[in-house]
Structures are given as C-alpha cells and as structure tokens.
Amino acid sequence: MKQRFTFFLLFAGILFTSAQKPSQQWLDQKFSMFIHFGLYSAYGGVYDGKPVTRGYSEQIQSFAGIFSDWYADSAKNFNPTEWNADEIVALAKEAGMRSIVFTSKHHDGFCLYHSQFTKFNIVDATPYKRDLMKELAEACKRGGIDFAVYFSLIDWNFPQAYPISSHNADPLTPEHYQFNLKQVEEIMTSYGPISEIWFDMGSLTPEQSKGLYDLVNRLQPQCMISGRLGNNYVDFSVMADNEYPDYKMSVPWQTAASMFDETWGYRSWQKRGSVQEKVNEKIASLVKVISRGGNYLLNIGPRGDGSVVEFESEVLKNMGEWIHSNSEAIYGTKANPFPHAFSWGDMTTKNNNLYLFVKNNNQFIDLSGFSGNIATIEVLSSRAKCRFNQNQKNNSVRINIPDNTNITPLTVLKVTFKDKFTILPSEVIHTNHLSAWNAVPEFGHSSLDYYCGYKSLTGYTWDFQTNKKEITPEITFTENEIGKEIMVRVDNEEKVVKLNPSTTIERVDLNAPFDFRFGNLYTKNGKGVFGYVEEENQENINTSNWKKIENFNYEEKHEMELNPRQSVLFLQEIESTENQNIAVEIGSGNGVYLLLNGKYITAHLLPTQDEYQKEIVVLPLEKGKNQLLIKYFNHKADRLNFSITPITGWIHYKMKLPAFKLKKSATHQLSIKESNPDSKVSPLRMNNVEVRF
Ligand code: H79
C-alpha cells in the first residue's frame, strides 16, 4: 500500500513575516497560469507553409532556421486585436488560478512590453502599438490575482548575445548581461508588484546570477526568483519542463507544464484529442504537485491574434469546476504530512483535517501511521458521510467510499479529527546507531543551469527512541567531510559543530568479515539533464541494453571524451555473501550521481568546471546481488576524468558532539544539515555519516 518517498517537514521552523520570502500568499497560490505569447504565436508552428515538427513552437525561429531580419519583419504584421486581458484574467480565475506568469520576452528577444532598451517591442515595432503586458498587469490587479513575468536570459535578437544554439544554455556576454539588467530593472519598476520572475535558460557566471538576484531583491524584495537564474540563486526551484518530482522538497518549488509536452507557444496543427482526458491528466498533475507542497504552473499558448485556443479554455474551465467544488482541499493546505506516498492517490492537510484525493477504482482505503481521534469522514464536494473503522491500537483506519460517489477525475475525502492529530515517523530507530541509510533525507533542487538541475540532498533526520534524558552523540565521518560546519538539532535544540580532523581516528580495514566480489561492469549514455536518472528507484536494473566493459582497470584514472551537457552511466554489479558495508573510491569530473540498488546515495555537481576529485563512498551491501549506478555528467568540460576503485580500508574520524538534553517524549529527533550553506539547495554531501549516542 505504501510507496516510499522520502522527506520531511516542509519549511520547518520558518516564520513567514511580511518581509520574508516566500510570502504565505505565494505559497497559497497552488495553481497559476503560464502564458506563452509572442511573435512566434503568429507562426503557429508553421513556416513556409509546412508544420515545423522539431522543437517547441515558441522557438520556431531557431528550429525552422528563420533569418533574423525575416523574423523581425513579422513584427510589422503582429496585431493581436483579439487579446483581451480582462477575459484572460477571468479565465484564470474561473480555472482556480491565483496568478499569471507572462512571457515579457522569450528567446527570440521580442518584448511584449514597452522596453526603452530595444525597439524590438510590441509598442515600437508592431501596428498594435499598445503595452500589452501593462494592460495584463493592470487586469490582474483589477481581478485580484498576482501578476508575474517570465524573462528569457538568452536573446536571439541582441547583437552581442551568443548565436542561436540547439541547447539554449550559452553563457552571457558582458554586454548582454548589462542589457538584461536594464530590462529587468524596467520591468521591476514599471509594472507594479510582481509576484515572481521566471528567469529561463542561458548559463550564467555566479557573478551574473548574483547580480540579477540582488537587483530584483533590491527593487521588489517580495518578488520570488526562479532557480533557473542558475548557480543556486533561487527563491523557488523549478523542475525541468513538464517534470514532476515524486518526492517532497524542503524549498518552495514549482512544476511548469504545457498543455502538450511538445510545445508552449501556439501550434495550429497540434492534435488535441479529448478535453475530458486532458482535464483528468492535468488535475492529476495538479494534485501530485500540491500534495508535495509545490505550485502548479499550467500554460496556455494563445494564437497570434491574441485569442485563446478553445480547447485550452475548455480544459481550464472544466478543471475550475472540479477545483472550486474541492477548493478547501487545495488552497491554504500543506503537503502530505506522511513520510510516504500512497497507491490510492495523494493527500494534503489543513488544521485538523486530511484531504484524500482518491483514484476512482477504490471501494475502501486503509490509512495507517497516525494518532488522534477521527470525528467524521465525508466526500468533500457532496458532504456524503463515509463509514469508517478506526483502530486506535494500530493507529489505522479503514474508510469505505460510498457507492455512486465517483467524481471525475478524483474523489476528495475530508478526514476530520476531533482535535490535533499526529503523524507517526515512518521509522523509529531503536538502536543508538544512526546512518544515512536509516535517515529521512531532505531534498532541494539544485540548478547551476537548466541542464545541471538535480535533486540535491540537503539534510538528514532520524526519529529515535531512548530512555536517556541527555545524550552526547559521537559522529563518525570520512575525510570527505573534514572541515564542514554542520548544524545539529536534537529535539528543539540546535548547535553548530565543525568536523575536525584532530579527533579520534580509526582505520576500518576491509579484511572483510564476509566475502564480496565486483562482478560485471556495464555502461551506456545517460540523459542530458544531470538530475534525470531513469534508473532511480528501480531495485533491479535490466542490463540487456547496456554495453558490458571487459577488463576495466579499477586502479586507474580514466579519461574519455564527453561533450558539455552529456552524461555517461556505469553500472557495477557487486555480489556479497552477507549484508555488510564496503567502500569504493569514486573519482569524478564535475558531476556525479550515485545510486545503490536504485536508492539515492549522493549527487553533486561542482560549480567549477573540469575538476577531478575523489571521494570515499561507503556502500551498505545487501546479501546477494547489488547494483551500483554511477552517472557522470559534464557541465562545460569536454573531457571526463573518472575512476571506480574498490578500497580495502578507509579512515573513520570520530568526534564527540556537545551534550543535548532530550525533551520528555517517547520519541526524539536528531537532524543534521550544513550550518551555513552557499545556498539552501546546495548538497550536504555527508553520505558516510554515522551518529551514535
Ligand atoms: O519557454 C519554454 C521553453 O521554450 C523554454 N522553457 C520553457 C518554459 C526552454 N528553452 N529551452 N529549453 C526549455 C530547454 C531546451 C530543450 C531542448 Fe529540445 C532539448 C531543445 C532541444 C532539445 C525539447 C526537445 C525542446 C526541443 C526539442
């Protein structure tokens, strides 16, 4: 019944005051409208009378190879007279959306607002001559929803920008960067309060990301900044296009989705299919996102004349019907408070209630792992009561879903407790031995640029039981972690500790008690987005379409050609006669992502390119066959240096932590994270940590 997913409390301990980001209002948006509208909308995915099937339609200039002067000429005919800002705001509201993110400028460089810094804008270059973005900002204000902007960090029209490339992740020249600063400044000062700025693409230097981040913060301190600004400058993380994480995150985040994965801008020849099927798909996505604490940004791509495609408005209106009759389960809620997902559907919570979004093939569902007294359970939209049977001893309940209550696409049940309820930890540790493998990890989403986006592990938490009133834990680490400053929290007390090498040193030799053997080594090419590892959570990876490597030299550093934004995977089979820890030394270039038997060990991507580094990775092998998966990724380098070396021993550093008083309760909590990370999404990199008390 339970599908494991890992995580922990969202934004634990952060107080949201008005001066701080994210505002409660931003977190409560839940569902927002993305609009891709620009010169490309007038092409509608067609060039020279033929459909352009490669690439997204908003990038038709690039994918159809349209000369800059010809493309720019199309502005002379751009006249979106059917655009009606108030109607679009009304549509967004009818759909249940609480903000609109509008393309102020896409990669083509054409501005949908009156820019002073280029004539290539809707006022100066088109017969329309109106500041369409300003009208939309004002309509949002009138309609009482938030206004936000998308801003492309690349610009195919700016003379000192890089040429049009396939990947859209080129660096910014100093001139182009200055131009972006000026444009962002005018947007931030002339269009009223902007709820978020959705920077997209390019590959900036850390200084450039910081410059833009500081500028927005100075002009509009409330404005949330998308992680696609790069270099881990991030107020909210953005998944890759149309990507849905199956884990919860400890940072504000968003999934941006298009109606059809193939395009964001209008595509006249799109096969659209059934409205109801699309509604079902997008409601399922919305629920998946909000149950993991995120914001769902769903796109429309109006036609070049400004009219909204009927299919898209129908989908939104139909979604809105379901959303409005279940709004209590959506707005103002928090993520699923359980430490795992469920096979029957998803969940949110608010006050003394749980909201269950149940797929319609369930007659009853079982829920366990909580304590508290359930008062009522009802179908949210009809208030029809559900019969239920709570078993206090097992901390569980069986809920019967009344016949004929199927609501398309998901039935929402409201579980109301008499008073407070508690979610029990997924695993309470009864020994005094904590390690990365019995911890609940906390994740962020790191992004140096679009292709470097990945799930970064930022902290570990353990729930444990002990009769002690005070503990003085001892922490064990390897040389990788020396010098790190960590924040240790036990119950509610926090202390900063520097991991110090002049502590007890112990050599762990692997004249192993039990036999193990490195078996076959396989390889294949990986996906071009670093964080995209299809094999994650696959306990048994099928190696039939992998290439077997003969006579690999495990002692040596290897070098291979690997272009920027490319990756290569290795899969090492390891047989063990018993459950036991062994270690391997992994040498990597700038990005490495490691899984053992499908489970995440660590992932990190060095901001500096081309570096070779080695790290010790302790592997808790299971008896029998194990699979170590290694993904190497190049950010900007064009060669990869790597090594995979089993080691016979490693050094443990042991250090006493300060004493912590335990509060009076049956279970306790210990957590670690970096005390002063560069960014809230920077990886902790302490996968070998152990704590004993
Ligand atoms: O505005 C939308 C896209 O145009 C923009 N981001 C969203 C919100 C975006 N620009 N570049 N990218 C996203 C990443 C580019 C991915 C690509 Fe491909 C992979 C370009 C070529 C290969 C996907 C598949 C797009 C075209 C083919």
Structure characteristics:
45 strands; disordered N terminus; 10 helices; eight-stranded parallel β-sheet; about 700 residues; six-stranded mixed β-sheet; alpha+beta
Helix content estimate: 10-25%
The average pLDDT score comes to: 94
List of distinct ligands in this structure: ligand H79
| Low-pLDDT residue intervals, each spanning 5 or more residues | 1-18
Tell me the β content: 25-35%
Structural class: alpha+beta
User: Largest sheet at a glance?
Assistant: 8 strands, parallel
Number of strands: 45
Give the termini separation: 34 Å
Radius of gyration: 27 Å
Question: How large is the count of helical segments?
Answer: 10
What overall geometry do the principal axes of the alpha carbons give? globular
Task: Give, in spatial order, the strands making up the sheet with the most strands.
Answer: 8-7-6-5-2-11-10-9
